[in-house]
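hey all, quick one before standup. I had two proteins in the batch that finished overnight and I want to keep them in one place so we stop losing track of which output belongs to which input. First protein below, input sequence then structure tokens straight from the run.
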Amino acid sequence: MAVKVKIPTPLRTLTNDQDLVSAQGETLSDVVQALEGSFPGMRERILDDGGEIRRFVNVYVNGEDVRFLQGLATPMGEGDEISIVPAVAGG
């Protein structure tokens, strides 16, 4: 399935400053692998060493937090939109 991925500003150095990229995958995990293939370094920014979504990164599929869906196993549909949102710390 072809999906659209919104790239946050801190990760745009990996995508040649593109804020929206296209990727293929049947699941979110497949999409992350496809992103890594096109934009090396993307996987390590999204996933931790154990292969899970980093604690301070939120990923949404069509506005739904994947932690409340099926995580990396969340199925993708044609034209789905993924948003990667790094948490912002402040005080």
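OK second protein, same deal, sequence then tokens:
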Amino acid sequence: MLRSLSPGTRKWLIVGGVVLLVMIVSGFIPMSHPHVEIKAEPIFHITDTIPFTNSLLVTVLVDLFLIVLAFVIGRNLKLVPGAFQNIVEIAIDGLYKLFQGVNREYAPRVFPVVATIFFYLLFSNWFGLIPGFGAIGKCVPVSHETETHASLDARLASTSPLGLLPQSATLAAAEEGAEEGHSSGGCPAGYAMVPLLRSPSADLNFTFALALLVFVYIEYWGFSTLGVGYITKFFNTHGFKKGVLPGLMDLAVGLLEFISELARIIAFSFRLFGNIFAGEVLLLVMAFLVPVVLPMPFYGFEIFVGFIQAFVFAMLTMAFIAIAVIPHGGEHGEAAH
């Protein structure tokens, strides 16, 4: 009967059969309770006080991936590009034109740095969506320090919409299971599972550090373009030449701009962290409820979210650089075009 079908139809029937088989088998696979932890978990310690976390491991992996990818693309450039080179050129050229639309004068100068931020965040966010990222880990002994926090964590879990416990409660539950002879999260009794891989963007330390670097980079362009006069954007006393009231108003506006400048660090870090971390928790809960079937639509949505977050971070960086290089007083020049 299959021989009478076209090759394309047979191919889709085989693919559909494999998907259906995976869905049926996954229904019989026992799933452990979702483990949600806000901070990145240490895999081992470089020193007594410096841990090597699972998010740092993925940071290194993404770095190596992008370095190898850039090396391979650079070594195989062709005058008549193939499909892969075409995709890369379209992505880079499209991003460059968008940056030119923000500031045509400074786009060539800042493009290497801002584009690197975009592509790094893009692959960093997408790496966290690889199946098994939160499921592959190692079993570590349960710490007895969590016993005093068990009752508090139980109350927190009862008020949580999803009933998810922080790590201390998870470890406390593992201790209780050890006393009763049960295992926790696929680990032996008395042990808890620590994931080996975690998206860097789901670690607040990473997003805060990146936001701080971007802040310094923006201020660098402000000072390098406008010199010491860049400070007058935030501490403007020239208005006092027109009178006390105009001077106080200019000073107040400058202080508000200074506060908003510092607030960008928090906005940058928490926007990226919140969206990526929430997406990983969503996928984890959906996979726990109905493996394979339920998470699939959310995977497509999180791929889109990962792209949007990287794009927004890069475009805001470019926009803030364009604002920083504008002289105080509205002489926009090229930045206005």
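Flagging for whoever picks this up: The beta strands are 42-45, 51-53, 137-141, 191-195. DSSP finds nine helices and four strands in the chain.
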